[in-house]
Amino acid sequence: MPADRRPNTVSALWRLLPYxxxxxxxxxxxxxxGIAAGLVALAxxxxxxxxxxxxxxxxxxxxxxxxxxxxxxxxxxxxxxILVRRTLVLTPNTHIEARMRNALFEHLQRLPVAFHDRxxxxxxxxxxISDLSAIRRWLAFGLMLLVVNTVTIVVGAILLIxxxxxxxxxxxxxxxxIWFVGAKFERTYTLVARRSQDQTGDLATxxxxxxxxxxxxxxxxxxxxxxxxxxxxxxxxxxxxxxKASAVAFVWRWxxxxxxxxxxxxxxxxxxxxxxxSLTAGALVAFFATxxxxxxxxxxxxxxLSFTLxxxxxxxxxxxxxxxxxxxxxPQSPRTLDQPQGLLEFRDVHFRYPDAPxxxxxxxxGVDLRIEPGETMALVGxxxxxxxxxxxxxxxxxxxxxxxxxxxxxxxxxxxxxxxRSRVAxxxxxxxxxxxxxxxxxxxGRPDAGExxxxxxLRIAQAQFVHDLPDGLDTVIGEEGLSLSGGQRQRLALAxxxxxxxxxxxLDDPLSALDxxxxxxxxxxxxxxxxxxxxxxxxxxxxTVMLADRVAVLEDGRITAVGRHSELLATNxxxxxxxSSLDEERKTAAASGSDSDAAADDAAVIDAxxxxx
Length: 613
Ligand SMILES: Nc1ncnc2c1ncn2[C@@H]1O[C@H](COP(=O)(O)OP(=O)(O)OP(=O)(O)O)[C@@H](O)[C@H]1O
What we know:
Blueprint: H1 9-14, H2 17-20, H3 24-56, H4 64-110, H5 113-118, H6 121-163, H7 165-175, H8 177-212, H9 214-219, H10 223-276, H11 281-322, E1 344-351, E2 364-371, E3 376-381, H12 387-394, E4 402-407, E5 410-411, H13 417-423, E6 424-427, H14 438-442, H15 451-460, H16 486-499, E7 504-508, H17 516-530, E8 534-538, H18 542-545, E9 550-555, E10 558-563, H19 565-571, H20 573-591, H21 596-612
Parallel strand pairs: 3-8, 3-9, 6-7, 7-8
Antiparallel strand pairs: 1-2, 1-4, 4-5, 9-10
The structure holds adenosine-5'-triphosphate.
Residues 117, 353, 355, 363, 381, 383-389 line the site of adenosine-5'-triphosphate (ATP).
């Protein structure tokens, strides 16, 4: 948003109110106690004035002790009040932070995948961690001190004028430039603070990516390159932080100089007034004692201003995410599937990614496909033809632009998302596992499934290796299951999809990382499951195609043919071309030594089919 169209800082920060509301009573009480501490500090100079003008002037020795005790009492009260203020605000502010963080996490879970495609994870991480902790610190201390110090300055100014109208006016007039300096500071600092926080997010993304991709970086010897990129970004951030620091130094220079000059002028004038007899010695002492009490509140205004602007930026960044609309939501009047059969239909489905250039036709450009209950349909097409995209549409990871996808005749947009996603389970080629036990990972889609269902899913996915892990099913697997091999992760992801006992199973090339022997075992076990479950399988190898009852050919965004593998081999040029290119890929892989048996095996399958055809 352009800087001139952004809401002012107060309106921007006002948006924190709903989260802060439950803590308001304690925050307000904390402010009242803080103001009381400030007023008590201002009362001490008044006692001093009395002490100098009455007790000392009258040489009343008996009056010294009570006055001194009164000052001591006021000092102790001030210290105790500050302690109470801190205690009052600390706990509720951690609750505010936790509430905001939970709300952010919940919102991120709900936002569509398209949002996550656009937002780097480091930007989200820096909002969830550093921006929110800046907001907490500001609510606990920044806002508190801003209010307390402003009240102290106003009351102190009144006391100064009451003590000596001339000195008071001179003091206040000479303080006016501070506000101009503050306004200039706000203009420059807001922009730099925003840049710094965004760059921090980018840096977090760089760290996250390089840690995540550490194996690739090491394997390709690109650690140095990643380091250089990181250093460049870190250097940019350092430059921005220096800009921030010089903006703060600029404001501090004036915040120290202006009160010092003001002090000196008032002192000279005060001494002249006292010498002329128009100001008592006690009033002069009280004036400067009050000005000294005001020194910290006046000086801190600059810091509090920058803190407030940092927090405003953090708040803007937080709400940038929270304001993102969730476009994939439950319907107003949801329908339910009373007796799910698993009939899946695509009717003239169109879809394009939001960032696709206009000159390109829709990626999914009028797909019509009917998969009967219990049928297994393989989806075959050239690489990049949109197969994975079509599978993602079934569980509404993306919403289609037009047409309809129906499950047992009901448009999937008329089903509640949790019902849809419990009826349709997915396994992806890139098997993501969470930092949790094997059991929790496999039962992610159906946590209440019993041991029997768990064991069966593991058997079908040929994932019995988990029993050899140190704690068996209770072994916590590392971040995203990195401590397991690619094939082991895929088998657990497949077990997860199977354990969900869905009516429709959507498998996006789920066997790609398995060796031939394991793949055969998984396939034969899967055949058993697939006999009773509708399945849509993206096939990248001929042997996966063999699992299917029928095959759908995806070409130019449409399903151009549906039939048995052998029929298509005999009748469809494009299918033959796709299958032979898959075979080529396999042979290339075999030549590079990665999976030769699988390639030979696939080639044999195709040859046999061709002979039969
Ligand atoms: N999240 C996304 N945002 C924008 N474009 C995307 C996104 N995901 C995929 N694409 C693009 O859509 C096209 C189809 O991708 P998709 O992954 O569906 O193809 P595919 O047929 O499954 O490919 P492969 O066989 O290589 O896995 C590609 O050109 C890809 O660049």
